[in-house]
Amino acid sequence: MGDLEPIPAVIGRKAGYTLDRSPVRHRADTHMSTFTDTLTPRGYGRKPENPEETYTDTGKTCKFHTERTLVEYLGIKPRPFFHLTCCVVCCQCLDASRPWLCYWILHSLELLEEAVPAAVVSDVCQFLARCQSPTGGFAGGPGQHAHLAPTYAAVNALCILGTEEAYNVINREKLLDFLYSVKQPDGSFVMHVGGEVDVRSAYCAASVASLTNIITPTLFEGTHNWILSCQNWEGGLGGMPGLEAHGGYTFCGTAALVILGKEHMLDLKALLRWVTSRQMRFEGGFQGRCNKLVDGCYSFWQAGLLPLLHRALFKDGDVTLSLSSWMFEQQALQEYILLCCQNPAGGLLDKPGKSRDFYHTCYCLSGLSVAQHFGNQDLHHELVLGKEENRLAPTHPVYNICPEKVAQAIQHFHQLPIPAQKGATACAEDQS
Ligand SMILES: [Zn+2]
């Protein structure tokens, strides 16, 4: 397993890569004549509550928005726990994503440095325990089938809570059995028994297995080669070999390879070219795929790749890397999130005109955190747009929970023995 620290202590000199670094104030002056690399409509930079005034009109950062504090603007401070405890009517369509709701909300709160009361921590632990399947792994809700996506969300949520009660919810032996039950002979994983294969599953499996210390010698046999085969001619990764490169899948595949210590086997320069080309020069935000509109959630899925790439290129011996900034326009991304992705009543969203939701709130905030913090504890450089109150806590670019919670979970679970490979035999029998 690779070193999970995103950035080493010493990095090297200034980057020489070709990301278009034209300052935001210049982008505003010139975007209409030169803006050909996205299909975004003209009014895209408009603030929904001030339709008469655009970001383009002012030609500079909007003072009103960037000087308001993020918590003030988000408006979730007065009732931060409402949806952790009351989620009956408005979220029926998310009935199979309930551990996700816990994760999205808890991670948003930790980024905002809002404490969770002990009683709520315990309630969430008990709820997630009810989502754990008797056959191992977690389901989207109590009584449902185990699935890798809510398993990832539940383990992340429990690690954010970080109490003994939270850690003790996870049945590591059964979790290992579940991972073997979804492992495929070619190294890939299905999302659930009888379900689909894609690169998300490899990431979810690698993430929970590494956090809880259940990686056996055979669990990820062949997985890195399967993930590598998802990198295509564009430079990014598709959901499966041969599919179009996509931000979410590219993050999942790259982060999984970092966990498995094989990220150097990617074509890193092609990946760097692909991901930096996904930041749009007018909006400042990222698109998920070539020729798609910018979407706030790719602030994490795409920008979150840059810390992984920075570290991988450093390990590869690149001495031209910056000591103070990632290889994307960090200020432009912060402007897009703060100016275009906030609902005045609280919460964040895809783009102006769209509804707020917990998924976009979590990933817009996660992307904002990546854009504000360069490096790790040894070498840290902050770039916070607007008031100091806009500052979020740093996030770990592999797991997307705060780095101290990753360290605490790894310290806790690495004191425990790796469970016996009961599932390995079952897997071998299945394949015979
Ligand atoms: Zn989105």
Provide key terms for this protein.
432 residues; mainly alpha; two-stranded antiparallel sheet; 20 helices; 4 strands; globular; disordered N terminus; disordered C terminus; binds zinc ion
Give the arrangement of secondary structure elements.
Layout: H1 24-34, E1 46-47, E2 50-54, H2 55-58, H3 63-66, H4 70-74, H5 82-85, H6 98-111, H7 118-131, H8 148-161, H9 164-169, H10 172-182, H11 199-211, H12 223-228, H13 247-260, H14 268-276, H15 298-301, H16 305-315, H17 330-340, H18 358-372, E3 373-375, E4 380-382, H19 403-413, H20 422-431
Helix pairs in contact: 6-8, 6-18, 8-11, 10-20, 11-13, 14-16, 17-18
The chain binds zinc ion.
Helical residue percent band: 40-55%
User: What is the C-alpha radius of gyration, as a whole number of Å?
Assistant: 21 Å
Rounded to the nearest angstrom, the distance between the terminal CA atoms is 28 Å
Overall mean pLDDT: 83
Shape: globular
The hetero molecules present are: zinc ion
Helices, by number, come to 20
**Uncertain segments:** 1-82, 423-432
Order of helices and strands: HEEHHHHHHHHHHHHHHHHHEEHH
Please give the largest β-sheet.
2 strands, antiparallel
In what range is the share of β-strand residues? under 5%
Structural class by SSE content? mainly alpha
GO biological process, one term: lipid metabolic process
Protein name: Protein farnesyltransferase subunit beta
Pfam families: Prenyltrans
InterPro entries: FTB, PGGT1B-like, Prenyltrans, Terpenoid_cyclase/PrenylTrfase
